[in-house]
Amino acid sequence: MSLVDLMSMAKPNLELRDKILSKLGGQELVNCYQCLKCTSGCTALKLLELKPHEIVKLVNLGFVEELPSSDTIWTCVTCLKCVQRCPQKASPYHLIMVLRNVAVEKEAKVPEGYLKIVSQILETGLAESSQKIVTRNMETIDRDHLKLPKIRHPRESFQAVFMKAMEEK
Ligand code: SF4
Ligand code: SF4
């Protein structure tokens, strides 16, 4: 069943909506007048089951229950174009970030790629591991080849601080 089908059966949850709005600090979703500027410039539009202006509309109306467990909120590529384009400071990007936090709080399914990034940061301090690349001469090179310094792994205190930050709401 698609998210759109679920929405048609949903009831508004005004308490959760107000909680989400209160976390948006300065982003005035209620001022959205559905001009679609966010959607027309969205980098991830083809991947989104719901479009940015639709997500804003649903939240304003209180149809928020299904959003945290939807893949849609993880499809946004955080390019911030909608923030720049919105004439009303009703940023879909900030809303999507709050919905991701709500998803984690509700222990909804988080895409595997994000979990991999978190464990990689814990292990190495980096979101991406160092990679080999192929030059235009078809030569494969890595950090050693470029005489770059060794990557230092984070101290244990980093892991404790990182985990604490993850747990903070
Ligand atoms: S969020 Fe902003 S850009 Fe998007 S429809 Fe609403 S007012 Fe327009
Ligand atoms: S931040 Fe997300 S919702 Fe906003 S334009 Fe980029 S991909 Fe689309």
List the helices and strands and how they pair.
Blueprint: H1 3-9, H2 14-22, H3 37-40, H4 52-61, H5 72-75, H6 81-85, H7 92-105, H8 112-124, E1 133-134, E2 140-141, H9 156-167
Antiparallel strand pairs: 1-2
The structure holds iron/sulfur cluster (SF4) (2 copies).
Provide a descriptive summary of the structure in words.
With 169 residues, the protein is an all-alpha fold. It is built from nine helices and two strands. The chain has a two-stranded antiparallel sheet with strand order 1-2. A hairpin with a 5-residue loop joins strand 1 and strand 2. The longest helix is centred in the middle third of the chain and has 14 residues, at 92-105. The protein starts with a helix and ends with a helix. Bound molecules: iron/sulfur cluster (2 copies). Residues 32-38, 52-53, 56, 85-88, 90, 92 line the site of one iron/sulfur cluster.
